Amino acid sequence: MNANTQVHCIIEDIDAESLDAQWNAWPVRTVPDALQQPLFGTTEPDSDEPLLNTYAVLDAAKITLFDNPEDAGGLPCQCLYQRQEQETLASVAPYLVQLRAEHDFTRTLFTYNPAFPENHASVHLWHKRPGIFIRTRASFDQLWQHLTQFTHIQDEQGKRYFFRFYEPKYLETLFQALTPGELNTLFGPHHLTFFSYSNDERPFFRISQSPDNLHVSAEPILLNQRIRDIFNQGAEQKFMRKALDFCQQNLPAITLKEGEDEQAFVRRAVALAKQNGLRLELAVLYFVAACWVMYPFLDQWLAEVTPKLKQSDLSQPGRAQALLEHALQKRQEIFDE
To answer: Which of 3, 116, 203, 329: CA 20 to 30 A from 110?
Structure first.
């Protein structure tokens, strides 16, 4: 477990792997060993405080046939949306569930079994990363009241947006984007500790409040330009890594020359894709791969194919895929000669 103290919170990696089918195991585990103590370990309460509870905030959109509290297998469960939104958005809403360690639903959250279809939600959910986990001494009702504040967020003009604070992919970015006062609003008076499935950079991880930040006054969380910029920057960095991985995995025999900055090359290729009217993710990935193939003949080749690319009637992914096929053929001709 590695701890990384950020400016205003503490992020710790937890080296946890999903449970498997456990066909011949007895007793059957419901929680991975690495998560048993962090998520369900018992601690002595301070003075007369209650024991710690464990909760999950789950995205119904990621769980097949999960659209009402009864789908949590009898565990305490309630939608975080107000009644009117519940009626129309039940199948894509966030739900608060109070977990018990020895429960089948808990085991499903921590299990991945590739022998079953990915959408078989009654068997496994780990690979879906359907939400986040919270440890706190707060009761179910106290935590529900607290979290309902964050299902929507307002910008500086008062316009409301849905706020997916329970999305593992963006959880770390969110906490790093907030000021000390905004963080204390999210951690709340019960000093929540957040846990999450892996994102693109981390394995399972925990986010807790920095002791240095405990006495900062809470401030409302607004969707301002600072938060927009941080999320946009984070999304751009993630896509650059994805594009580089795409090239390295699909074109392993093609490499840049030693010492070449691969990330800078990919960044330039993404910019060129946008200049050529390609903005859909798959189209940009194909375009970057085509540029990767044509290194080090990129500028000359682009001058030749760009006019044809802009005149094509194909869809964005279709144009980019045709470009990649042309690049592969052109490279073969160059090196065959």
So the answer is: 3
